[in-house]
Structure formats: C-alpha cells, structure tokens
TrEMBL record:
Domain Aerobactin siderophore biosynthesis IucA/IucC N-terminal span(s) in chain numbering: 111-155, 189-295
Name of this protein: Iron transporter
Similarity comment text for this entry: Belongs to the IucA/IucC family.
InterPro entries membership: Aerobactin_biosyn_IucA/IucC_N, IucA/IucC-like_C, LucA/IucC-like
Stretches assigned to the Aerobactin siderophore biosynthesis IucA/IucC-like C-terminal domain: 314-467
PANTHER family for the chain: L-2,3-DIAMINOPROPANOATE--CITRATE LIGASE (PTHR34384:SF5)
Gene Ontology terms, MF aspect: acid-amino acid ligase activity
Source organism: Lentzea guizhouensis
Pathway terms, separated by semicolons: Siderophore biosynthesis
Gene Ontology terms: biological process: siderophore biosynthetic process
One protein family per Pfam: FhuF
Amino acid sequence: MEANSDPDGITATALLNCLRREVAEVTTTADHLLLKLPHTGALLRARTGRWPSSPELLAGTWHPITWHELAVLIVKELGTAPVGFLDEIAASHSAIAAILATRGAPPNDAYQRSEQALIAGHRYHPAPKSRGSLPASAWLPYAPETHAAFRLAVLHGDFVDAGDVALPAGSLPAHPLQLSLLGLSGDADGPLVWPTSSVRTVYDPAADLFYKFSLDIQITNDIRRLWTYDLHWIPPLAQVLRPVFADIAATYPGTAFLLDRGYRTSPSCFEGLAVVVRDGIRRHTWPGVTPLLAAGIAEGFPGNPLDALVDPAAWFRAYVSAVAPPVLHAFFAHGVVMESHMQNVLVGVDSAGMPVQAFYRDHEGMRLLPSHTSLLSSVDGDLAGARGVSEAKGWERLQYCLIVNHLMEIAGAVHARHPGVDLWGEARAVFAAYAEEHGSPPLLRALLESSPSVPAKANLLLRWTRAEGAASRYVDCPNPLRSTPAPS
C-alpha cells in the first residue's frame, strides 16, 4: 500500500520523523532505523526508505506498535504532554482518513494538482493535518487535499483598504468557512476559486489573483488568522520589496515574486474578515512553462516531472540554480530573509520538465536584517516586533527554510527514484558559484567549508516549550552542502 493512502502509516511516519530528527539516538542497519529514546531507554526500529515506516518496539522481541502507542511513548519520553497533544495527533489521523475517503479525481490543471497533493502535510510535524475541533463535514468542502473548488461569499458595505487592493468598491470577498466560524453568513455568489496548499489562501483563475483569508483554525503550529501586526506591515513591506524583487528578477531572469499588494477588511471585524490580495501566477509565467508547487513535487502527483527524469543530476542542478541564488541574493545584497520553504516556492518547468523559473510568495514569513532599521522603527515604533532579526537569526532561518525544509526534501524525492546519484555535489557547485561571484560572504563560506550542521525546526519539542505558534526552536541536522575534506 502506498504511504499516501494509509492514514495509520502517514501518522506513524510523521512521529518517527520527529523522533529521528529531534529526540532519538539513531543508528542504521541494512533494512531498519534504530531509534533509542534517551530518557526511557525504549528501543524502536522502523523500516528504511524515503520515509521511516512500520514502527516496532523491542520488548524481549520486536513487536509492531500503532501510531497511538508510538505517540504515548513520546509522552513518556518527554514528560507531561501539552494540553490536547494526543488529541491533536488523533484529530490529524482522522482528518487524513476523511480526506482519503472524500478525495475526488485530480483536476486537469497540473499546477492545481501540485498545490492540492499534500495529503500527508508537513512530514516533520506530529499532527500535520489537525483542523482543531471542527467536524470533517465543516472543512472538507474547502480542503485542497480533496481537490475542492468553491465560490467565495461577498459582503457589501463600507470597508477599510490599505495598499493596492484590486477589488470592486464596496465589496469584500469572504471565505465561507470563516464566515461560519464567526457566526456570520453571506451569499456564495463570488468568484469560483480553489484552495492552495496553505488551506486559507485560494486562487481565482479568472482574475489571476490569490486571496489570503483568516481561518480561525489551528493548523500545525498556529491559528491561521491575519493578525493586525502582520496586516499593518503589508503596505510598507510591499514598498520595500518592489525594488528588491525588481533587482533580483533582473539579476536572475525567470525569478518572480507574487507580491502581497494590500488588504481589505471590515472595521467591525478587522482580523476576522481581512483578505490579502496577492499577485497571480499567470502574469509571471513564461510561455510554455508550467508552474508547480515545490512541496507537490516532493510529495508526488500525476504528471510530476520527477517521474520522467532522464538525467537526475542535471535536473537537480537546474532546480537549485533556479531556486537558491535569488534567496541568497535577497539576504546578502538586500538584507531580506525570504521564507523559501516548499509551500512558499513554485518552480516553473519547461515542456521537458526541466526547472527554468522560480516564483516566491507570502510576505508574512519574511524578515528584515538590521540594514532596514529605519523602516522597522517607523512601523513598529517601540514595539519589539518580530519582523526584524539579527544577521545570525536571519541566516539560521534561511538555512532551515531553503536547505532543510526545501532542498533536502526535493533531493530525497529524486533519490527515491534514482538512488546513488550525487545530487549534493551539484547543489554545492551552485552555492559555490554564487559565493565566488559575490565576494565569498563568510556565512556562506562557512556553510560550504566548515559547518557540520544546518538548523532543523523542532516541531515536536516546540510543543513542550508551550511557545507561541510563530516561535521557532532548532536542532542540528547534518549539513549536506559541506565539502568533504581531502585526506591528510
């Protein structure tokens, strides 16, 4: 049975991935991962492959254990669980089962198929598909994983605009599920849209625009609401990013940025009814090129270019060449930390399936380095806002998003089809070329020559810190870009 059609297997794999990355002492045999939990001494094993699977516990002999038994072992290892932790895992499992039972035929459009391919969700999160306490019947009609499409509701009245909002005057598009959560109603006579991988952002093909809504549901680490702080940052951030993006696009032809232009909302429900208007994808796509979600490429969907690779090393080098240099240039040349994880990056492939374009989206996760102090002060005032970060924190965030969350997962998907190919030599050459062309920045030189590890977000341990949803905690992950020193 394929992993993507088995809720038990998907749930167990997510927990095994968290243990492997964040908690366990790991060794390998020919066919298994061995995971020793340091506090309790429990010894687990799992079958190797693209993802660890089929967990077993050593109790005299090896005994298969369920995903729920695995979750209980995690609680015993880490101590008193956060409130609702086991319930969230169970809810995620139930959501995956409901998605698989409801999932319709794939849409004709390859881009939509790639956006709606993420049945398993975040592979390194303990409860990636939990939708809070909502019954499945409430959210399934709006779920990307079911290949949903639906009409937005439209409210009429006096609304507040900020930035460039390309919407008819006096009208406010609203997500039907959010209206229900707020106890409101509206006629679903708006544009026909389909949900992207982020669930709360939808694409309007007729207008070639994306709309990002508040959804008062916890998905992975956070309630997906458009907070006032982030809304207020949209116009000034767009003003800063336009020239930055223009320079990067000129330096790296084929690079495009889906700008968050502005927002509209109701004064009576500022956060709850807010909608962010974002550039569409078609206006930025070259003729003959098909945009695909990076996370969809990693996860798999009908028409995935990875299923027809002729030269996997050349394909991966082209992929890294499209995706990585713009992110590095934003950081080193412009002091902008892009959140270039797999759900924020689209890759354009030509008719042969080769990557030729990269598209970046979602300003909410972008951060600014101290070179933007004046802007940070003018928007945040005396508040200790999260938009500004030190160079060290920004570099940590960039490495996680670009390397660990993104390139390592794409490489894993290629290796699953073509084991033994030296992909990281190709990636290292792209990073090294950027370094050589731009004065060999010390942070980048250390990444390529000496750093033994890169930071990986600890989504399991983060729960035990009771941190806010936007917080991050990192653990060390082996650095795949580090050059192997020559024998002495």
